[in-house]
Each structure stands twice: as C-alpha cells, then as structure tokens.
Amino acid sequence: MGSVYSEYLSSSKVREHYNYTKESPDTKDTPSRQVASALIILLCCAIVVENLLVLIAVARNSKFHSAMYLFLGNLAASDLLAGVAFIANTLLSGSVTLGLTPVQWFAREGSAFITLSASVFSLLAIAIERHVAIAKVKLYGSDKSCRMLLLIAASWLISLVLGGLPILGWNCLGDLEACSTVLPLYAKPYVLCVVTIFSVILSAIVALYIRIYCVVRSSQADVAAPQTLALLKTVTIVLGVFIFCWLPAFSILLLDYACPVRACPVLYQAHYFFAFATLNSLLNPVIYTWRSRDLRREVLRPLQCWRQAAGVQGRRDRTPGHHLLPLRSSSSLEKGMHMPTSPTFLEGNTMV
C-alpha cells in the first residue's frame, strides 16, 4: 500500500508515462500554443458567464422551479463546471504537465470526466422527464421536488465515482503497456468502459426521443400542442449538438484503445478534438435562450438593467451641474427598468 501512495506522489511518474506513450512529449510553451491557450481560456470564461446567467435566471424566478427547468439548470451547472475544469486543464498543461504528480494529474483530468458524466446524466434525466410529461405517466407524487433533487444528486454522485475511478486505483501506474496514448496515466480498459457507458446512455436517449415523437404523432391535439412540440424540438437540438460536439472526441478515444502505443500519430492531436467538444458547453445556453422567449428575457434581464443603469449614470456625468439635480426615486427607476418576469412554464412557455 505504501508503494502505491509513493507512486501517486512521485514527481517523475508523469514524465515516465509521457515518455513511454509519446515519441516526444510536446510540452513546450511556443507562441502558437500560448495564443491557443489564451483563446481556450477566453472561450471557457464565456462558457462560465453564459451558464451562470442561465442558473441565475432559473434560481430567481419561481416559475422556472419545475422539473424541466431544474434539469436544464443541472445541465447548465455541469457546463459551468466544465468551463472551470477546462480552464484549470489549460493552465496545468504544456510545460507544467511534466511537473505534476499523479494525484494532481488525476485531479486535472478527472474533473473533466466528472463534468462530462454529469452532462450525460442530465441529458438522460431531461429525456425521462419529457417522456413522463408527454406520456402522462404519474411518476412523481406530491414530493416530486424532493425526488427530482435526489435524482440530480444521484447523477452527480455517480459522476464523481466514475470520474474518480482512476485515482481510486483503476489506472496504469504499474503497467505501462496498458496505458492510453491520449491520457497516459489512464488504463485503456477504463477509457473504453467510460466511452461505452456514455455511448449506451446516449443511444438510450435517442431511442427514448424516437418513442416520444411516435407518441406525439399518434396522440390527440392536447398532447401534440405547438408548445409541447417546440419544447421537444429544443431538447432534441440540445441532444444533437452534444452528440455532434463530442462524437469526434469519443471516436479518438476508441481509436486510442485499438491502437498500440505510438502506432497512430493522429492521437497526438487529440487536444484539438477535445477543444472542439468544449463548444458544446458554449452552445447549450444559446440554444435555451434562442428557443425560449421567456427564458431569454430572464437571462438578459441583468445585462439590460446594467446597461440602463450605465446609461443613466452617463447622462448625469455629461449634464452640467448634475450633482444639483434631484435623483429619481427608486420606485420610478424600477418602473423605467421593468420587464416582464412571469413566464409560463414549458407547455405554456413561449417558444420561437
């Protein structure tokens, strides 16, 4: 047991694995790499801000406190944390990588796997909720909020376990030949297991949506209402964008499992595939706000309030003797900045 802990804290172990799996570890901070890292960090900052606005909108308006929006909020939370994880991953890459201990390396990569798992399970929860709503299945009782929160908590617990398996022992620290080329401290069987689980869940989600569409097509007008179809189209777009963004990364991981060490040079470019996958976390909030007029109003409300407040302050600064002018009362200012904040939820939600 002591030898295991000594390997986890060894400062030379990461370098040993990178030297074995890669012909020449590309860890130099070249100008092009620095520019790419800066762009990725800016992208991740946009991801954090976008998803934070969605979470604020969901939290502050009680009309969004129902099943669908709770699950969308959970997806936004996983996307926000994914942005934070990608920022940390970028800052700890390059020349910093070979100075990490295995524990630090597992934390760096594991955080990305945890947020990815949470996103997949959030998509599954959304699909189940849509099936329940369309099929009129009475899955939830009077304590449905408690059950939804338990479901969300369970999805995060499973994600933590799945992402933490390597640091718990499922790694290749004692077996270099079993190491992944893309993720040199991860065992190939673990990578295959994770990709297989995600693929099975996504296939099940697709099958569930096909069943939902069949139910809608064969149902009466109340089930196939325009609002219901619009929301169903929205969550289907979210699923399609997720698959589109992550399919290249999943494919490169499957190729990694099949290829012997140093046999597939394309694996050395895997970071481009994962950078493309980060676009998913950027696009999700755009899809929510583009498809739902009510959510768009609530998300943009803080920005519009800030812009109006800045405009009032700017006019005061440009007016001579503005310090002598009476200030508007808070009630009149609020009246001038008032926006509708009572969106109807889901089936009554205004979709475009």
Entry keywords:
single chain, 352 residues, mainly alpha, Rhopdopsin 7-helix transmembrane proteins, globular
Describe this structure in words.
The protein is 70% helix and 0% strand. The chain is mainly α and 352 residues long. It has a single domain (27-303), classed as Up-down Bundle (Rhopdopsin 7-helix transmembrane proteins). It is a multi-pass membrane protein. One of its GO terms (cellular component) is postsynapse. Disulfide bonds join 172-179, 259-264. InterPro entries: EDG5_rcpt, GPCR_Rhodpsn, GPCR_Rhodpsn_7TM, S1P_rcpt.
Write the layout of secondary structure elements.
Blueprint: H1 2-8, H2 13-21, H3 31-60, H4 67-91, H5 102-135, H6 144-168, H7 188-217, H8 226-258, H9 270-277, H10 279-291, H11 293-318, H12 330-336
Helix pairs in contact: 3-4, 3-10, 3-11, 4-5, 4-6, 4-10, 5-6, 5-7, 5-8, 7-8, 8-9, 8-10, 10-11
